[in-house]
Design brief:
Layout: H1 17-28, E1 35-38, E2 45-47, E3 50-52, H2 54-66, E4 73-75, E5 92-95, H3 100-110
Parallel strand pairs: 1-4, 1-5
Antiparallel strand pairs: 2-3
Length: about 110
């Protein structure tokens, strides 16, 4: 059964561990048990004196999901050359938002 989890972020950018747990359970109930992390809609840069990078978010996501038994969290920071069929090897996709219009543009550009 395919499940879709749609949610917004929290003001303090801390992960909602209850939601992470629910999503992790759904991923672990797939054949793949692997997660894909796509942060391209979230800008990188200095926020409140901290250099926020996609790699920093990836590390945080890996730690959060490892707590729930997901050991492989791959990250795509470039959608060029990616195909819809590339997603089949993942049990779930975590898209880090920020700018929905930018994300849609990048998906359309990549084909």
């Amino acid at each position: 059964m395919t499940q879709l989890f749609l949610c917004g972020g929290k003001a303090d950018n801390a992960p909602d561990l209850e939601l992470v747990g629910l999503f992790a359970d759904a991923v672990l109930n797939t054949r793949s048990k692997k997660l894909l992390f796509i942060p391209v809609a979230h800008p990188e840069g200095i926020f409140n004196g901290v250099n926020i990078t996609h790699s920093l978010f990836h590390s945080s996501m890996k730690k959060s999901y490892a707590t729930y038994g997901i050991d492989q969290v791959d990250m795509w920071t470039d959608l060029a050359g990616r195909k819809y069929s590339d997603l089949a090897k993942y049990g779930g996709i975590h898209i880090l938002g920020g700018n929905t219009f930018d994300l849609l543009h990048k998906f359309r550009e990549s084909g």
